[in-house]
Amino acid sequence: MATTTWISTSWAKINLGLNVLRRLPNGYHEICTGFAFLNWGDRIEMTSSDSFNLSFTDPEVPSGDSNLITRSASLFKKYTDSGLGYSMSVEKRIPMGAGLGGGSSNAATAMRMFNKASGVHLSAGELQRMSSTLGADIPVFIHGKTGIGEGIGNQITFADIQPSCWILTVFPSVHVSTAEAFSQCTPQPDLDFTIKRVLMQEPLEEWRYLLNNDLEPWSIQQHPVIGHIKDQMYELGAIYSSMSGSGSSVYGLFEQEFVAVDAYHLFLDWKYKTNLTPPDFIPDFGIYQKS
Asked: Could you tell me if 182 and 57 lie in one domain?
């Protein structure tokens, strides 16, 4: 009997601002951030198997029990008693440790693939609850919608905040400790301009002055290249630029295509891992049978 092969794309995200509001007793932080998508994704291929197997095109990515795809497989099997066994291969394009949500996106995409291939057909809400221990930004990738994250980032108000401009994203290949970045940040609970207000009400021209990533100053202090890339974004014509998440990727928003394309080629010439996403990008979260 022929086996079915399923394929899907696991998309990257950027954070549109990130405010740290307060430290919580459990060690986490209450935050507010916006989530938007990049046209930058890993390709995941999956076929039925007697046991679970996972491989990556990038040998540096661990595929053992600590990998979020492996953990999502265990969770799905535990909660659905599906007895599934799948062989999965991931063509890794999203850089690791870049603040682009690659691991969470992989886990959420795998969870949706298990759901479809097994015929269990859980709702997105059920998948979100099942995968709540895997990562705070999992809900964005489970639902495949942009939105504003509150709580620890997992309480999503879905909203159309995908930028209507070109998004140039640059990864400088340095790694920032997320735990250290949060520990070095001073929470600011009372803000005059909340991220929700800025993203929903303020014009893009004002974002440079109102939309901040509170993890950025310490990260730049530890890795000055992050600040250099941000400065270069503005010098090359970006209307807004910021580090994504805890870094180290930096993105710039460009209104004119030719300006964005010129900047994209410059960063490529400078040997950075670089992505250019078109305005109003809508990613395809579909899961398809391979012909």
From this structure: no
